[in-house]
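Subject: Interface between my chains keeps coming out wrong

I've been trying for a while to get a sensible model of this assembly. When I model each chain on its own everything looks fine, but I need the whole thing in one frame so I can look at the contacts. Pasting all components below, labels as-is. Any help appreciated, I'm running out of ideas.
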Amino acid sequence: MQVAVIGANGGIGRELLPRLADAGHDPIGVVRDKSQFEAIRERGGEPRLGDLEGAFTGTLRGADAVVFAAGSGGATGWDKTLLIDLWGARRSVDACVERAINRFVMISAYKASDPIAEPEAIRPYRVAKRCADDYTERSPLDTTILRPTTLTDDEGVGCVSVAYEYRDEDREAISRADVAQTVVACLENEETIGETIRLFGGNTPIENAIRSND
Amino acid sequence: MQVAVIGANGGIGRELLPRLADAGHDPIGVVRDKSQFEAIRERGGEPRLGDLEGAFTGTLRGADAVVFAAGSGGATGWDKTLLIDLWGARRSVDACVERAINRFVMISAYKASDPIAEPEAIRPYRVAKRCADDYTERSPLDTTILRPTTLTDDEGVGCVSVAYEYRDEDREAISRADVAQTVVACLENEETIGETIRLFGGNTPIENAIRSND
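Reply #2:
Try treating it as a single job with all components included. I did that and got this:
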């Protein structure tokens, strides 16, 4: 599959490109800036320009699936949270609908289900992610929403823990590498379509962990 | 009707309470702070505490209709735009659904339909308002969404101009007083249920202006 990764130069995006290539897919790395093209190529991706706040039409052409891994990050203001994490996500979903790219994986965030839960400092971010998730979920696309807990830059271990239902005790941090590997596994498992999966560090091999208990 | 105004001490809320009372309704003024109670009473409203970021359950009890006139305003950060203008609006809609308060009027904003239109500085606000509007519109409530252009503190003139379809040339500013009077007129005209109405300064008596052209 041609898999377009929006936010390909971000923490999870960088881990995702080589894993998609290793799994036999053709990753497309969507970035805002041509200076990032070489880094995308080095990770096995075809670089493309796409600005979630500007020109975006055409960026996703030819893709069979799209992963939204973009985020405004901690160094910008909440205005960018509204423009990138929320509106950029909606634009990405809209672009997929327009181009009939049916498979969509959203990287969301822990407790986006309950944005005004503690801690207070992260509430506005969770509001944006929750609203983006709702839009994704209601779209006609085949969607999977991943809500990882605290992210680390540790090596991937290939194992995670998931919760289809919320359990407050499940708070173990997870590496960006394992989130990325979970994205690959979800793209290859149709059982994850329509699911919102809370994702934690854990001991279950990823392919087994994401199997729905339905 | 008992009409609860969320954001009753804001620019439009203050204009709305006496107009609701004049029209024979019983206004409830929802405010964050008991220090505002006297101001609400002076405008003919029954003051109630309600915190869109905190305790809100029970605030709307007994209401027949709710007007969302709250806004984080220009003096706070974009975090409050996410928490009040977007999440607070969603909480208000949810509270109405829960209590079977079916009539809901949302005070939205000009060009919320196209958030990343110019000018750039207002885009994040429009994203929040658009997402709140979408949530309102999709709810099972009987909703009317008003999208006034630039607001002034001028005296009300009782006349406006509306656009059920977008027309770029219609940019005349409108007084908060006339927006408030339009809310009252909408509550009294079932034709406005399900409509999103762009609102400008103009020369048509409000009751006539809001009559749908369907």
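Reply #3:
Confirming on my end. The mean pLDDT of chain A is 94.
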